[in-house]
Here is the input.
Amino acid sequence: MSSWYNADGLNIEFGRTNTRKSNRPQYVKSFGATHEIHIPFDLSELAAGTAFPVDRDNDGTTDGFHTGSVSIPDQAFIESAAIYMTDTAAAGGTSLAVGLYQEDGTAIDADGLVTAANGATANLTANAKVSGSGADVGTGVTERNFIALVVAGTFTAGIGTVVVKYTLPQSV
Here is the structure.
């Protein structure tokens, strides 16, 4: 066990858990009311299943998010989602989907941003842009949404970045 919440509610981590988060730091870029979330990834470091960043119940399995995780805020409008590949995805994996989750890891829509059909291995080639056509693209959210990658199979290579663009509500 290398990640847990202490008595003060702080997330404590050491060892390999730090490198498994989603393999890279996640960050938000802002352009006025429009924001972008960037989630870099290395498919060879992600196991099959949903790639959560936090072990919420200290059982050795990542299963959710913490309050400080990058997220889409309540009432935001999701403009677009895309995967930008740097290196070709290879061998063993069949697809990569990107979905929306609650903080505890409960799926809101596991492929709501990029579907498995969008993220099929054949589409994940070097320098490719894979546009997401999930059901949540082009809609507003009604709660805070966390983003996770869903990997089908075991990839041996493939580096890229998920970019989700959203707009905050404007007051009139």
Q: What stands out?
A: Residues 3-167 form a domain with the Jelly Rolls fold (CATH 2.60.120). The mean pLDDT is 88. The first strand starts at residue 3 and ends at 5.
